[in-house]
Amino acid sequence: MKILVAIKRVVDYNVRVRVKSDGSGVETDGVKMSINPFDEIALEEALRIKERGEAEEVVVCSIGGDEVQQQLRTGLAMGADRAIQVQTSGPVQPLTAARVLLKLAEKEQPGIVFLGKQAIDDDCNQTGQMLAALWGRPQATFASKVSLGEGKATVAREVDAGLETIEVDLPAVMTSDLRLNEPRFVKLPDIMKAKRKPLDTTSLDELGVERAADIETTAYEPPPKRGGGKMVESVDELVSELKAKGLL
Fold it and tell me: How far apart are CA 132 and CA 36, in angstroms?
């Protein structure tokens, strides 16, 4: 079985995000970029499945300009066998990403398409669900535990009420939650080996993917600074203050 893992290049989660002075976007010059943490967890799970002998190949893919090759090489250093870059410029929104992954799934014929439940830059949480609908295959989202059987997968997923265990037929789409695993550290010898692993490039036109109508973001601004607190002497005074601020 083959596993296709989608990863996204995002500002590293340890970096404090700053809005550009002109409000046109988020500052990325000189900022550390990394694999989206949820996608990194998805890749780690795919690698563990392969190491258990339940998959033969792990293919990692990403959509974007040449800068995404850095994250693809990191994925190869973690243990992926091949990488695919789908070249495009500008931001890619969930429906376009799902259409790209559908074409890759049709070409690669994976048993599982694995990706993070959401990206930390836009928090959309849509791509996996859209892919499952377009592909016409089962989905297991917010996975916190995955076990494979004969042509099936049992997935424990996190829901509002706790944990839900479902069984899906393969091929299927899975999205990872934070508690699924802890990704491995990449070592220098693995980084050197990754340089010799194949990294193929293609484009939206070559895949026959049409961009979905994008949602246009007109401006960015940081959240307002938090105001100072005020001490009150009684519950009645607290209620009065809340009413004055329109909170009650």
Answer: 20
Rounded CA gap, 169 and 128, in Å? 16
What is the total residue count of the chain?
248
Q: Which CATH code is given to the segment(s) 2-220? A: 3.40.50.620
Strand partners, 115: 175
Dump pLDDT digits (tens) for 201-218.
Answer: 999 999 999 887 778 788
Q: Which residues of 140-172 are buried (b: 16+ CB within 10 A; e: fewer)?
A: bbbbbbbebeeeebebbbbeeeeeeeeebebbb
- The reported pTM is 0.85
How far is CA 176 from each of CA 5, 11, 140, 208, rounded to the nearest angstrom?
11, 19, 9, 28
Residue given tokens 């550290």 in the structure block: 185
Contact 30, 225 (CB under 8 A): no
Whether pLDDT at 13 is above 80? yes
Give the pLDDT confidence score for residue 246 in this predicted structure. 87
Paired with 59 in beta bridges are: 4, 82
